Amino acid sequence: CAIAHVSAGQKIKYKDLFVLLSAKQYTEAEPFLKKYLKDNTDNPNAYLYMGLILEDKAAHVDILKETERYASLLDSAVLYFGMAGKGMTEKEVSRNEDYYMMYNRRDLRTGKFGVKHSDVVLDIETRMKLKDRAKQALALKAKFKAAETTYLKSLKFFKVIQSEYPDMKHLYLQADDSLTLQLNHLAQLYDSCHVHFNDYKALAKMMGKIGYNQDLDPQDILDFKRDQSPTDFYSDDIKIQDFKRWALSTE
After folding, report:
1. Backbone angles phi, psi at 112, to 5 degrees
2. What is the mean pLDDT of residues 6-30?
3. At what angle do helices 67-86 and 44-59 cross, to 10 degrees?
4. What are the pLDDT digits (tens) for 60-118?
5. Among the four residues 40, 73, 182, 218, which has the most C-beta atoms within 10 Å?
């Protein structure tokens, strides 16, 4: 590709750069496209592809572990799609049809293949909605963290109760109103985890593909003194201790 031999001082020809862009070689094309856009601010197709590159980058980011970066990439993509939309005229599309071949389709009325300005505009308008997905991603992480945090709180609270009695026999014998309150609080904490997790799952379903499909898998507590270690909320099968069932049966 001719663009690979462009030196620091040379101007980048968009037709050379487009070879990489049309082949979706985004990693190789991105630095050249950034350089090109510094010197050229009137090319809607270049803005469109910069948006596509950023959207593609976001698609390869872990939405739960790198949420801020994911949202930032989508926000930046939307910015470029907006700039592309501003210059996307009938004249632009007809004059540079080769650059818009990804929109090439058969006209049902005439039977001829071609690129329609309206198709390009509609696609850009659709991609602008990624702004909403960026906001949803931040909300998704908040609901996910709330579920994880409340479960860890219930685990910590269970360990407090666990440390106060050498075994279940002593717990029953020494039980009082204070313990009853503790058991109720433990059940409420555990319930909160489920509420937050259900909110997370509902939003995840609405967003579509997010790269995760976890489910809570409550485990009965059969040994009161067994060490209950934290669980991995990023795994598909999230094994959690059923503190509510234990608390209610103990009560």
Report:
1. -95, 150
2. 87
3. 160
4. 999 999 999 999 999 999 999 999 999 999 999 999 999 999 999 998 888 889 999 99
5. 73
